[in-house]
Write a structure and sequence with these properties.
This protein is an alpha/beta fold. The chain contains 12 helices and 15 strands. Helix 3 packs across helix 9. The structure holds pyridoxal-5'-phosphate. The site of pyridoxal-5'-phosphate has 15 residues, from helix 4.
């Protein structure tokens, strides 16, 4: 394989619920969930059954023909958003959902796009232009022109850059890859107002904060506002590749047949999996339990020595350490059977499946306590 990823030290051979087993037979509690992707854990029987049934009917058609799983999923998403003017475009990943948003915004006739410094919106050339991290962008310059970056959470910074030339402002409701950065309360609402003032499309990139992870279907809902565009991926397919870009109240005639497309986008199998995921999240009231478990989790983490801040919402949690030891700590947790992600030198990220139990949370917090004491004594 190409060297785009560090060589993994674990080879996973089986999985069930929140647990993974490696080729040596060691078992792990998976607190990363495929990076916020396996919302219902691994091998969920409802997903396995939905996918198997669809596989026996047909697995792929292309977008030349319609199919029920796709129609059903679009209807479900529109219902979740609660606005009949919503329109869904299916793709396979987060970066593709962002590309679709970029293209749609360009059709307004305006060309400028604003994103936040430190944000993550994907790695393809368009999305990478919005992923305002110099280390990821620099080797690939030049990127898209007319993209501006503002300080996340700072309205003044946005006020200086936004204008009637701005096509779209794109923000993560909580910045995931940046280390689970929660904006000041009222920020997203104020951004909404500013976008309205200049007639700018507001896009919320909910690829990581969508599908109920934070305790609402989409990461922005607590702010009592709606964006014009939503991008989702990660959790929606419950482990299968699927993404979507949804517009709300946007001129339906911007995207026309031929404007955009994807061979596999909205593939029947991925859609069948997503329908099962949404149905199960509703049936089990995971929105409510995710929020509760997250509060319990964060409160427990805050009590640990060595934890500077525990933050996030629902089951998207960042643990900021006093010392830049996130990688060592992640490694030691792995040895104890807990998988977490060192998103940078100082922050551990957790995005477990919605199946995680309070007792598993307690055990993990206890393990982290031991590891933190251990590195302190080194
Ligand atoms: C992961 C992520 C993406 C990119 O998704 P891919 O499926 O890896 O292309 C985009 N935006 C956000 C907020 C993400 O967390």
């Amino acid at each position: 394989m190409q060297s785009t990823y560090a060589t993994p030290d674990l080879l996973i051979s089986s999985a069930k619920g929140s647990r993974l087993k490696d080729s040596a037979g060691m078992e792990y509690l998976d607190l990363l969930g495929g990076i916020a992707t396996n919302a219902l854990g691994h091998n969920h029987p409802k997903i396995v059954s939905a996918v198997t049934k669809q596989m026996k009917r047909f697995s792929h058609l292309s977008n030349i023909y319609g199919h029920k799983p796709g129609i059903e999923l679009a209807e479900k998403l529109i219902k979740m958003i609660g606005d009949d003017s919503a329109r869904v475009y299916f793709c396979n990943s987060g970066t593709e959902a962002v590309e679709a948003a970029i293209k749609l915004s360009r059709l307004t006739g305006r060309k400028e796009i604003i994103s936040a410094k430190g944000s993550f919106h994907g790695r393809t050339m368009g999305a990478l232009s919005l992923t305002a991290q110099p280390s990821k962008q620099r080797p690939f310059l030049p990127l898209l022109p007319k993209v501006k970056h503002v300080e996340y959470g700072d309205l003044k910074s946005l006020r200086r850059k936004i204008s009637k030339r701005t096509a779209m402002v794109i923000l993560e409701p909580i910045m995931g890859e940046a280390g689970v950065v929660v904006p000041p309360s009222g920020y997203l609402k104020a951004v909404r107002q500013l976008c309205d003032k200049f007639g700018v499309l507001l896009a919320f990139d909910c690829v990581q904060t969508g599908m109920g992870r934070t305790g609402t279907w989409f990461g922005y809902e607590d702010d009592g506002i709606k964006p014009d565009l939503i991008t989702i991926a990660k959790g929606i397919g419950g482990g299968l590749p699927l993404g979507a870009m949804i517009s709300i109240g946007v001129d339906k005639n911007l995207f026309l047949p031929g404007s955009h497309g994807s061979t596999f986008g909205g593939n029947p199998i991925a859609c069948a999996a997503a329908n099962a995921v949404i149905t199960e999240i509703s049936r089990k009231n995971y929105l409510i339990s995710n929020r509760k478990k997250g509060e319990f989790f964060i409160e427990s983490l805050k009590k640990l020595n060595g934890v500077k801040e525990a933050r996030g919402k629902g089951l998207l949690i960042g643990i900021e350490l006093y010392k830049p030891q996130a990688k060592i700590i992640a490694k030691r947790l792995e040895k104890l059977g807990y998988l977490v992600n060192a998103v940078n030198e100082n922050v551990l990220r957790l995005a477990p499946s919605y199946l995680i139990t309070d007792s598993e949370i307690k055990k993990f917090v206890q393990a982290l306590k031991l590891v933190l004491e251990g590195v302190d004594n080194d």
